[in-house]
Design a protein that fits this description.
The structure is a homodimer.
Chain A (H helix, E strand, L loop, with lengths): L4 H7 L6 H10 L6 E3 H9 L7 H13 L4 E3 L7 E3 L5 E6 L4 E6 L4 E3 L9 E12 L1
Parallel strand pairs in A: 4-7
Antiparallel strand pairs in A: 1-3, 2-3, 4-5
Helix pairs in contact in A: 1-2
The structure holds a DNA duplex.
DNA sequence: TCGTGGGTTAGAATGAATCTAATCCTATCG
DNA sequence: CGATAGGATTAGATTCATTCTAACCCACGA
């Protein structure tokens, strides 16, 4: 179910440029991914134009703003960018330093924290941290 | 239910020193806290010896290792140190940049992610991110 | 052809956290 | 009581991820 990078950008209202096309092409190749900036850099290195770090960050942040990807941060280390945008949770495999998705249907959460009135829940982040 | 800082350190097997005593005194004053390094620094500034940043980090990390506090990181920003060590979850109030605890009893999670055999769940982190 | 403005860039700057090597204490031993 | 060994503390440098800045490039329209 692969849609062309160009049309993905177009429907997100983002001008297609070399970097954005190359990054979208890598990210949206049909396999959902969790990539770090370094991994994305490596992947683009194998393509035509290797972008500067700054534009890679710019482009990833644009994609986030457009809702094409999501940023996931755990610990204080480098951020992950997740190509799955619908609500879901994560398993972090400490030994492999790898993120894995958990569909929302796999867990059921009953109960809600008490919140001040008028508050809205922006997101619910769940991470199972596992090791061997 | 306030226990003296000295006896807390002693039962954790940590030598009592000026900084460690001052920090423990501030952290374990009976009110559970979520503090950043900067807040801890501010608090210690009002006491006898203002420690260097390095030893504050050292001391907070020692306390973590000893199980006296827990580190919580969200986004890429500065870490929080949480004086509540038993399992619990968090609400993050984005508008106030404030963490709040949710007791485990307030939520029920049914279902577990599929894990490779032999894996153990180190922790389950849940953060409700809320805004006004 | 000349601007205009967005895209891209290298390199500097920022902020959190850690590392290093020197110095300070302090408990213990002679 | 004085020497000393080893942990505690320190200032400052260092690392790492990320963002900022100011210049440059380039496609497109007047």
């Amino acid at each position: 179910m692969r849609t062309g990078a160009a049309s993905i950008l177009e429907s997100a209202g983002i001008q297609p440029t070399r970097i954005r096309l190359a990054l979208a092409d890598y990210l949206f190749d049909g396999e959902h991914k969790h990539v770090t900036v370094q991994e994305a850099l490596e992947a683009l290195k194998r393509k035509r134009h290797l972008p500067s770090l700054a534009s890679l960050y710019n482009t990833l942040n644009e994609f986030c703003r457009a809702g094409l990807i999501r940023k996931v941060t755990l610990d204080g280390g480098a951020a992950w960018f997740d190509t799955r945008t619908e609500p879901h949770y994560h398993v972090f495999h400490e030994d492999e330093c790898r993120l894995e998705d958990i569909p929302v249907a796999a867990l059921k959460i009953t109960g809600r924290p008490k919140l001040p009135k008028g508050s809205i829940v922006r997101s619910v982040e769940i991470v199972f941290r596992v090791a061997k």
